[in-house]
Write a structure and sequence with these properties.
By secondary structure, this protein is α/β, with parallel strands linked by helices. The chain has 15 helices and 16 strands. Helix content is about 50%, strand content about 15%. β12, α10 (about 300-320) and β13 form a beta-alpha-beta unit. Pfam families: Glyco_transf_20.
Length: about 475
């Protein structure tokens, strides 16, 4: 049976996404290839050091990056260049040839590590747009393994991809995949419309193409959370202690606001919504609070400082205008909390405001629902532009650009009776159970294996057609 090589940018256990990878590999076995989180000066004539560790359930392969690869290739090219393009914010994108050069080297590090350890029958699962070039680099190194790439981020609409300088180079690598996965049907449709407009494609099925003689399949695979992981978080002492502290010190009507600290988070609109809420419903003065979690670790280094400063100014103005000596409407916390502590904060919050302007999925929304008390659950308010909105039946869906709509949703959420909150929570949990992380992995990997059958079937069909043509020529 073929093995699994899962490739991600960072092996850190601090994020929900990394915890999902660990859970998937613990169940399926395989090799996790990742940057080790360290930087190291590397001589041009010396091979990059690779650290292989054999584990009880899965193995790991890690390596360092140079400072240029991390700062220019990753922080600059990926987060100041590609990230805005994929999130429909080309006005924020900044590209340079120096950053591009380091981005190439960053991907070469992954490709060489994989090429050195991959067995011929391994399937290779690349995580996200950071590593698009590694696919072509692996093909150039001679790897013929099945390779799948999954986009955790949205795929740009229209001709947004072609606005990236040197987009052809990225596209050529992307088209070397056997399977490309997306969070939502909208993201996949954006890709299909773009690829058919940019390349000469032969469509062999609804999501199967032949491009440059290579078969490429696409699919939609919504990322889910690991419910066992959520249960472990709830069982921890840190979670229980944090929940008790929050319930003892925060208002009953606490509205949780968190997620990534970036330009797509929509945080200023959320804070504006609180101002609208207080003006429309003065009875909330003194007994509600927006709890804004804004750990620098939840953002990207190039933008975190500026965004934090802007948020501090907005929150300070809000508290100065509407707060009292005993109460402030917004609590802005930059402290980093463990995943166990976050679970306690989530569980104690009456409402979760998850309203990114654009998001591939938003696992925070799913984790908030999963750690709620079914007997007295909170209410989820979710952006219509988060991938999770496609299948989270039971959430209040809002336009994240509309503070008035967000304020109305908060007011509604705080007034929903217990029986309806329980009903909404049950519907949400049904979807989370149906689309957990293991179902996500199983669906993607099954289709990655199936792509080999596609190729065999198409080749067989081509041989039949050729034989018939030869027969006619003979006569």
């Amino acid at each position: 049976m073929s093995g699994l090589i899962l490739v991600s940018h960072n092996l850190s256990r601090a994020s929900t996404l990394s915890a999902l990878y660990e859970s998937i590999l613990s169940r399926n076995g395989g090799l996790w290839v990742s940057w080790d989180g360290k930087t190291q000066a590397l001589a041009a004539d010396m091979p990059r050091p690779l650290t292989f560790r054999q584990g009880h359930k899965f193995d790991t392969l890690t390596f360092p990056l140079t400072r240029g690869e991390r700062e220019q290739g990753y922080q600059n090219y990926v987060h100041q260049g590609l990230w805005p393009m994929f999130h429909q914010r080309p006005d924020l994108a900044r590209f340079s040839q120096d950053d591009l050069s380091q981005y190439r080297k960053f991907n070469e590090a992954y490709a060489r590590a994989i090429a050195e350890y991959a067995m011929p029958d391994d399937v290779i699962w690349i995580q996200d747009y950071h590593l698009i070039p590694s696919v072509r680099l692996m093909r150039d190194a001679g790897l013929t393994n099945r390779i799948g790439l999954f986009f955790h981020q949205p795929f740009p609409a229209g001709q947004g991809f072609t606005a990236i300088p040197d987009w052809q180079w990225l596209a050529e690598s992307l088209l070397c995949c056997d399977l490309i996965g997306f969070q939502t049907s909208q993201d996949m449709n954006n890709f299909l419309l773009w690829v058919e407009s940019a390349f000469r494609c032969e469509r062999l099925g609804g999501t199967l193409f032949r491009i440059h003689g290579h078969l490429l399949r696409t699919g939609v695979y919504p990322v889910g959370i690991d419910l066992e992981d959520a249960h472990c978080l709830l069982a921890s002492n840190s979670c229980s202690y944090m929940e008790e502290q929050c319930r003892a010190t925060l208002p009953q009507n606490t509205i949780l606001s968190g997620g990534h600290l970036d330009d797509s988070a929509g945080l200023p609109y959320r804070i504006s919504a609180v101002e609208v809420l207080l003006r429309s419903h003065p009875d909330y003065v003194g007994n509600m609070m927006l709890l804004q979690l804004a750990s620098p670790l939840a953002g990207y280094a190039p933008r975190t400082a500026g965004l934090s400063h802007d948020l501090e100014s907005i929150c300070g103005e809000m508290n100065g205008v509407h707060g009292t000596l005993e109460w402030c409407p917004v609590s802005y916390l930059t402290k980093s909390y463990s995943r166990e502590e976050q679970a306690g904060i989530y569980r104690a919050s009456r409402v979760a405001l998850v309203t990114p302007l654009m998001a591939g999925m938003s696992l925070m929304a799913k984790m908030y629902v999963a750690v709620q008390d079914p007997a007295n659950p909170g209410v989820l308010i979710l952006s219509q532009f988060a991938g999770a909105s496609e299948h989270m039946d039971g959430a209040l869906i809002v336009n994240p650009y509309d503070p008035d709509a967000i304020a109305d949703a908060i007011h509604t959420a705080l007034r929903i009776p217990l029986s309806e909150r329980q009903n909404r929570h049950a519907r949400l949990m049904k979807g989370i159970h149906r689309q957990d992380c293991h179902g996500w992995a199983a669906g993607f990997l099954a289709d990655l294996h199936e792509s080999e059958s596609d190729e065999a079937a198409v080749m067989a069909g081509s041989l039949v057609v050729t034989a018939k043509m030869v027969g006619r020529l003979r006569y």
